[in-house]
UniProtKB/TrEMBL annotation, chain B:
GO CC term (a single one): cytoplasm
The entry's keywords: Cytoplasm, DNA replication, DNA-binding, DNA-directed DNA polymerase, Nucleotidyltransferase, Transferase
Protein name: Beta sliding clamp
GO molecular function: 3'-5' exonuclease activity; DNA binding; DNA-directed DNA polymerase activity; identical protein binding
Function: Confers DNA tethering and processivity to DNA polymerases and other proteins. Acts as a clamp, forming a ring around DNA (a reaction catalyzed by the clamp-loading complex) which diffuses in an ATP-independent manner freely and bidirectionally along dsDNA. Initially characterized for its ability to contact the catalytic subunit of DNA polymerase III (Pol III), a complex, multichain enzyme responsible for most of the replicative synthesis in bacteria; Pol III exhibits 3'-5' exonuclease proofreading activity.
Lineage of the species this protein comes from: Bacteria, Bacillati, Actinomycetota, Actinomycetes, Streptosporangiales
Main location: cytoplasm
Limits of the DNA polymerase III beta sliding clamp N-terminal domain: 1-122
Species assigned in the record: Marinitenerispora sediminis
Assembly, per entry: Forms a ring-shaped head-to-tail homodimer around DNA.
Biological processes annotated in GO: DNA strand elongation involved in DNA replication
SMART domains per the UniProt record, alphabetical: POL3Bc
PANTHER family xrefs: BETA SLIDING CLAMP, DNA POLYMERASE III SUBUNIT BETA
Length: 423, 379
């Protein structure tokens, strides 16, 4: 059961009652203990593109890779009407919806829009847990006195996102993260749904088991085998049985979730555990030169992100996926933390060489830095002969140039696209 | 082949030769130890040899030869056996393709390896000079501590040996610290000027194992013609090792000559305190030192974790200074100096500091200097 099957596909503003969803007006004081909000941007990438390209209004829009192996990352609701959904191969999406306007993803634009939305959320409360570029949990228990009830705050957020960013979002309001997230999915797009605590089970139990957090394809099969198709079915089974069938951790968790119990807190700043980037080639590559260039490009990207977030890392990991999808990773821990692309690239290249895949056709390469620490507090052991200014400083200057003139303005010479005029 | 030798003499010689046996021999015969019994220089002697194409070792001991001959047996096994023999006369003889080791009531029969496949040991280069064996071993161990262990930077895994007439300068660095030691020796040619980069681990092991004789003779292959090699001999033992290639950093320029602060601390107290305080320093977190008039405060750990602090008496001339070091690097330096009082010279908290022993007389230069790069606490 995937999320899109849970979506109704039409805007909804309501509150869950004992016998279905009622208009919000009936919600007086029912939201008192529903202090968790889940905010989910609607068709986020596609909406940002439509904003930038007003001529696409009223047309199906798809954002995704346009190469032979491109996949859909986002589609607006018009395109979804044709059966297009994210993670679908682009070739198939265009067969379903040949009239769609397709945009290649523009990560920088989406990040800017995402940050603007997150800024709105953070102005409501500092208790913001960003899940991804287009999703966040808020705990508004501290903001109620200042801004009103959770439903009022949800309305305020929706209003401000629409007014200030010309984007729509859906908000789920509940006492737990699990139910709030289901609620936002349920009222998409441009909706708001409150699930009062007393009606949580009425809301949950008719849903298919796939709605439970942690139930993927495999767990769903196990549950179906037991004759459990809805959340209500799961709620009716003893926790012991679930643990026995699904393992201790998952079984125990589902027994709780099926009754709407979820004690996860909104975690404001989960520090990154690693920073990485990877690239799937349009066609499998066995040219060492091309792979070296890609490793350099990814190392530059990772180092830039480390520096931008004020972080340093100690372990360099290289991921190599062969044409037949078998994947190997190799890692090395450095003596020192780093945020310097030149150092990351040198290690990544050695790891690639040592992996013995230099003539092998690769589908994907990835570079990742783990062992993350705060650059401001991580002690650094310089070498005796280290100049006062070195590559670290040179790369910081590159960051400044890129901020002013755009990401491609300054690159290592190996990454510059040469044209025929160059000698 | 048949000869007799006292167990202790044999066990020592075999153990020394076995040190250089390769752990994973590239060809099976290199796991062998060559036994050559016969008349050498008019005496009955047994020569034991091992070689792995990098390092060769040969020792010669006095024996009773009944029947001269040469054989090759597993070096590890022979070392194990001789170490465990009773303290009596050992008789070793060949019996067809086997070697029989008999001692008291114990008897071992070993398989042999083909002698004809064993490589010829390199000749010792021409004698270059000699030095007292204890002084040499001490100097080498002071310097080798700073050598790198990362084989991807081979030139840093060596000790640079610079010979200028009667002065030998040893230096090594892993880029984070640098150890330099000067000593005098007796060159064959007082005009000699030469440099060599010797693998640090081999050099340290060799220098330590040659203290059985009073002097160590050093033989450095001359010129660029022959493959770079250095040989050491003393007390009936000789060993050669291939030199490392690559450019050693120009380290003299790194040694500062002016300082803003000079501190003196009792060495043994300092070492104990560093060990104690750094117990709370997790991997890669530094030890912080604050020198002010009359005292040194050592601290490690931060507010998020365990912390430790200790105060020692310390003399200070010049400016107060706060500086942080990797505690393992600091300990290596303090342990290497040969004085009861450690002298630390600083310019600033971001520039290398020098650790020396306090010279016996004021104004004299220390013959051992340990340069250490401080850790930067935040960028």
């Amino acid at each position: 059961m995937s999320r899109r099957q849970l979506e109704r596909g039409a805007a909804l503003r309501g509150v869950v009652g004992p016998d279905g969803i009622r208009p919000l007006a009936a919600a007086a004081a029912a939201d008192a203990d529903c202090h968790i909000l889940h905010i989910d941007m609607d068709a986020f990438f596609a909406s940002v593109e439509q904003l930038r390209h007003p001529e696409t209004r009223g047309r199906p829009v798809i954002v995704g890779g346009t190469g032979a192996r491109g996949v859909v990352s986002s589609a607006n609701y018009l395109a979804r009407g044709f059966g297009v959904h994210s993670a679908m191969p682009m070739v198939r999406a265009l067969r379903l919806c040949p009239d769609a306007v397709v945009f290649p993803p523009d990560g920088a634009a989406y990040r800017r829009a995402s940050e603007a939305v997150m800024d709105i959320l953070r102005s409501v409360t500092p208790e913001v847990e960003k899940l991804s570029t287009d999703e966040a949990f808020l705990d508004v228990s501290g903001a109620q006195r200042r801004l009103g009830s959770p439903v009022r705050i949800a309305e305020l957020i929706r209003h401000r996102v629409r007014q200030e960013q010309q984007l729509t979002c859906s908000v789920g309001v509940a006492a737990t993260k699990f139910v709030a997230k289901l609620a936002s999915t349920h009222c998409k797009p441009d909706g708001l749904l409150l699930v009062p605590t007393e009606h949580v089970t009425a809301f949950l139990h008719p849903l298919p088991v796939g709605a439970l957090w942690g139930v993927g394809e495999k767990a769903e099969q196990s549950l179906t085998r037991l004759g459990l198709r809805t959340v209500g079915d799961v709620a009716g089974v003893s926790p012991e049985t679930l643990r026995h069938e699904l393992g201790h951790a998952l079984g125990g968790r589902l027994a709780e979730l099926a009754w709407g119990r979820d004690d996860r807190q909104v975690a404001t700043a989960t520090p990154d555990k690693s920073v990485g980037a990877e690239e799937t080639f349009p066609r499998d590559v066995d040219d060492v030169e091309v792979i070296h260039r890609e490793i350099l490009r990814l190392s530059e990207k990772v180092a830039r992100r480390l520096r931008a977030s004020g972080q340093v890392g100690r372990t360099v990991v290289v991921k190599l996926r062969r044409a037949d999808f078998t994947t190997i990773t190799r890692s090395r821990t450095l003596g020192e933390h780093t945020d310097v692309a030149r150092e990351i690239n040198a290690v990544a290249r050695e790891l690639y060489a040592a992996a013995g895949l230099e003539r092998v056709r690769l589908r994907l390469v990835g570079v990742r830095v783990e062992g993350i620490a705060d650059a401001a507090t991580a002690p650094r052991q310089p070498t005796l002969d280290e100049p006062e200014t070195g590559w670290r400083e040179a790369e910081r200057v590159m960051d400044q140039v890129a901020r002013r003139f755009g990401a491609g303005a300054i690159l290592p010479a190996a990454l510059v696209n040469r044209d025929d005029a160059d000698v | 082949m048949k000869f007799r030798v006292e167990r202790d003499v044999l066990a020592d010689a075999v153990a020394w030769t076995a040190r250089t046996l390769p752990v994973r021999p590239s060809v099976p015969v290199l796991a062998g130890m060559l036994l050559d019994a016969g008349e050498h220089d008019g005496q009955h002697r047994l020569k034991l040899s091992s070689f792995d194409y990098e390092v060769s070792a040969q020792v010669s001991v006095e024996i009773d030869v009944e029947e001269p001959g040469t054989t090759l047996v597993s070096g590890r096994l022979l070392a194990e056996i001789t170490r465990n023999l009773p303290p009596q006369t050992v008789e070793i003889s060949t019996d067809g393709a086997k070697v029989v080791v008999a001692c008291g009531s114990a008897k071992f029969t070993l398989l042999t390896l083909p002698v004809e496949d064993y490589p010829t040991l390199p000749d010792m280069p021409q004698l270059t000079g000699s030095v007292g064996s204890d002084a040499f071993a001490a100097a080498v161990s002071q310097v080798a501590v700073a050598a790198g262990r990362d084989d991807t930077l081979p030139m840093l895994t060596g000790v640079r040996v610079e010979i200028e007439g009667e002065t030998v300068t040893l230096a090594s660095t892993d880029r984070y610290r640098l150890a330099v030691r000067e000593l005098t020796w007796k060159p064959e040619n007082p005009e000699l000027s030469a440099v060599a980069l010797v693998p640090a681990k081999t050099l340290a092991d060799t220098a330590k194992s040659l203290t059985t004789g009073a002097e160590v003779s050093i033989a450095l292959s001359a010129g660029k013609t022959a493959e770079g090699m250095i040989g050491f001999s003393g007390g009936g033992r000789r060993t050669t090792t291939r030199l490392l290639d690559g450019d050693f950093p120009k380290y003299r320029a790194l040694l500062p000559d002016t300082f803003n602060s000079v501190a003196e601390v009792q060495k043994s107290e300092f070492i104990e305190a560093v060990k104690r305080v750094s117990l709370v320093a997790e991997r890669n977190t530094p030890l912080r030192l604050a020198f002010s008039d009359g005292q040194l405060v050592l601290e490690a750990g931060t507010g998020d974790e365990a912390q430790a602090v200790e105060v020692l008496e310390a003399g200070l001339e010049g400016d107060d200074i706060q500086i942080a070091f990797n505690s393992a690097f600091l300990l290596d330096g303090l342990n290497a100096i040969d004085s009861d009082i450690a002298r630390l010279q600083f310019t600033t908290s971001t520039k290398p500091a020098i650790i020396t022993g306090k010279p016996a007389e004021d104004g004299a230069d220390a013959d051992y200097r340990y340069l250490i790069m401080p850790v930067r606490l935040s960028s």
